[in-house]
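Hi V.,

Quick status before I head out on leave. The structure for the redesign project is tokenized and pasted below; the design run finished overnight.
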């Protein structure tokens, strides 16, 4: 949403995109039986959480830059952009409901970012003071995560989903909105009035240009990469079965 792009922001977002691709490829390989690992615990779980944290934190910084550079003091641009992202999130909910059933994404990272773009509006004027609210969101998130409810539709707030509800992508408002507010606070410190406070080395001589490019196309990549992964792995599995059948005859 920012009028001016900062290469370092796109670079960090590009790193998060690569991390997302790695995790989702591992998940897909596990789903098709090509890789055996528990991706919901241990190092893989931490890797997923770090990836999401980078994405959401950068969203907060981008919202601050939009607020300062484009003068988006009116709510409408945030409502429209957030609504668009929520629409894509709802499409993902529908697709995962059709294909995954029990793993339906009711409130994933895209839902969270859509809500964040809308809900962050009154917090943007607070700037670095948002650090005070971050701890409140984390404390509330810790409490709600230990509070199971019998109504799955309340889980988006941060309540523990009742068994056997399982979601492959779950990032509730509490505590994750707090990470976005931390990004807003960091943005207000690092980019006061939309200008860099600290010097950044030139990124023009890079073999890292492709990470910056990925960061600029993060939404498109997010929406398209899973159909590509699933399609390729489905064809690989079908080809393997065809070869096995031919050898058996």
């Amino acid at each position: 949403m920012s009028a001016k792009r900062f290469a370092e922001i796109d670079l960090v977002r590009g790193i998060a995109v690569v991390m997302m691709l790695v995790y989702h490829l591992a998940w897909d390989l596990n789903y098709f039986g090509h890789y055996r690992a528990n991706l919901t615990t241990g190092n893989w779980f931490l890797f997923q959480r770090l990836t999401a944290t980078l994405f959401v934190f950068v969203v907060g910084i981008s919202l601050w830059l939009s607020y300062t550079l484009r003068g988006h003091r009116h709510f409408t641009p945030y409502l429209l952009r957030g609504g668009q992202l929520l629409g894509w999130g709802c499409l993902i909910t529908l697709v995962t409901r059709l294909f995954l059933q029990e793993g339906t994404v009711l409130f994933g990272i895209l839902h969270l970012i859509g809500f964040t773009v809308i809900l962050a509006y009154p917090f943007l004027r607070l700037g670095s003071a948002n650090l005070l609210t971050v701890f409140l969101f984390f404390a509330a998130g810790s409490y709600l995560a230990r509070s199971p409810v019998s109504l799955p539709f309340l889980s988006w707030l941060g309540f523990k989903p009742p068994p056997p509800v399982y979601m492959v992508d779950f990032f509730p408002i509490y505590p994750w909105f707090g990470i976005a507010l931390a990004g807003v606070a960091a943005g207000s410190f690092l980019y006061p009035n939309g200008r860099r406070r600290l010097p950044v080395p030139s990124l023009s001589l890079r073999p890292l240009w492709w990470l910056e490019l990925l960061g600029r196309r993060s939404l498109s990549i997010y929406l398209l990469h899973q159909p590509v992964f699933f399609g390729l792995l489905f064809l690989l599995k079908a080809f393997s079965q065809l070869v096995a059948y031919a050898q058996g005859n």
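Above is the designed sequence. The chain has one domain: 7-196+209-248.

G. will cover questions while I'm gone.

Best,
W.
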